[in-house]
Amino acid sequence: MNRRKFIKNASLTGVGLAVGNAIISCDESDSKKNIQENNEAIADLQGLPLVIATWHVKEATAKAMEVLQADGNSLDAVEQGCRVEEANEKGQSVGKGGLPDRDGNVTLDACIMDKHGNCGAVVYLQNITHAVSVARKVMEDTPHVMLAGEGAKQFAISSGFKPEDLLTDASKEAWEKWKVEAKYKPIINIENHDTIGMLAIDKNGDISGACTTSGLAYKMGGRVGDSPIIGSGLFVDNEIGAAVATGLGEEVVKTVGSFLVVELMRQGKSPQEACEEAISRIVNKPNSNYKDFQVGYIAVNKKGETGSYSIHQWFSMTKFQNGVNEQIQSDFFNKA
Ligand code: SD4
Predict the structure, then answer these.
(1) CB of 116 within 8 A of CB of 139?
(2) CA 297, CA 87: separation in Å to the nearest integer?
(3) Which helix (H) or strand (E) holds 178?
(4) Where residue 34 falls among pLDDT bands split at 50, 70, 90?
(5) In terms of C-beta density within 10 A (0-12 exposed, 13-18 middle, 19 or more buried), how is residue 109 classed?
(6) How many whole angstroms separate alpha carbon 74 and alpha carbon 114?
(7) What is the pLDDT, as a whole number, of residue 26?
(8) From ligand 1's centre to the CA of 246, what distance in Å?
């Protein structure tokens, strides 16, 4: 029995790892092997559950941890965690209160991915606050992985979501100020809170992830970023780990960033090393104008080790593990 099945079986029986070990022992050598696997399994599960998220979102990670501590699974945890920020009108890059495109429309992108590799996404979704939950519905209730625009909105409404105006007074005012000059220039670290990407490992050791955003402020009408694109904004492989991105989505899409981070972990890199390599792919392109934009990654592997890295300073990761919910400043590339 491999370690994964062992962990799963031990947690499914609900009778504890030591008992699980006794049940699966056949002869002495099997028994020794199983004890070793047992110890490894216990070590693996020690730092769990855990949740990490992009930027400073302690309320969101606290919500996710509440779900995990109540024996909830990692999929519920990331959905519930992301919903906190989607509902927070003060966050101007996610859900309600998100900054609009240049025509004044708030359009949301989100996706979610579970331990089986199932995923769902919505792009250019309007008038529905909880884009991450619509993405989950796409995953669970449709034969598709992605719905866009009006189709996504109609699906959400038919699934029971209430349409509402997502443009708050504060975001409308910011847009009106922007219109005076109407210059489109992505701002590095527009605020200390941005697109939320969240990754969680539950008590069974299973990984899920989600990502939700209103995208870049004052983008062209119809623009979709990396955040709802599986492999770019988010990728989960329950055998290996998971990664999620924030920043200038175009650059993340061009390097299929989150998939790259997970594949690098598969090849043996730590989450930190993998995030650094994914950033180096962007900044080391010939003629890269990386000085003008930000990209940040966070990642977690199956052992619960985490990493984060960005192009510029002031990207951060919020991490909730072993009872500590903390904001961790990310290391970064551009130290010049
Ligand atoms: C996008 N990656 O739409 C998102 C925006 C973002 O920090 O993450 N901003 O390109």
Answers:
(1) no
(2) 23
(3) helix 169-181
(4) low
(5) buried
(6) 8
(7) 44
(8) 5
Give yes or no for residue 212 CB within 6 A of ligand 1. no
- Evaluate: CB of 198 within 6 angstroms of ligand 1: no
Query: pTM value?
Result: 0.86
Average pLDDT, the chain: 87
* 190: DSSP letter: S
pLDDT at 187: 62
| Residue of 107, 220, 248, 317 best suited for mutating to test ligand 1, as the one with most atoms within 8 Å of CB | 248
Active-site hit among 195, 212, 213, 306: 195
Residue with structure tokens 């965690």?
81
Output the CA–CA distances (angstroms, integers) from residue 258 to 91, 173, 226, 328, in the order listed. Answer: 24, 34, 10, 20
Burial (CB < 10 A; 0-12, 13-18, 19+), residue 105, is middle
Q: Would the CB of 194 count as within 6 Å of ligand 1?
A: yes
Residue nearest to atom 3 of ligand 1 (CA): 215
How far apart are the C-alpha atoms of 296 and 332, rounded to whole Å? 9
- Atom 6, ligand 1: residue with shortest CA distance: 247
Ligand 1 atom closest to Cα of 252? 2
Question: How many angstroms is it from 122 CA to the middle of ligand 1?
Answer: 15
Which of 136, 96, 144 minimizes the C-alpha distance to 234? 136
Among 216, 224, 310, which is best to mutate for testing ligand 1, by the most ligand atoms less than 8 A from CB? 216
pLDDT single digits (tens) 160-172: 999 999 898 898 9
Instruction: Assess whether 318 carries a catalytic annotation.
Output: no
Instruction: Tell me, using a 6 A CB cutoff, whether residue 195 lines ligand 1.
Output: yes
Distance (Å, rounded) from C-alpha 298 to C-alpha 310? 9
Spatial distance between the Cα atoms of 213 and 40, rounded to a whole number of angstroms: 38
Q: Are 282 and 248 in contact (CB under 8 A)?
A: no
pLDDT at 36: 57
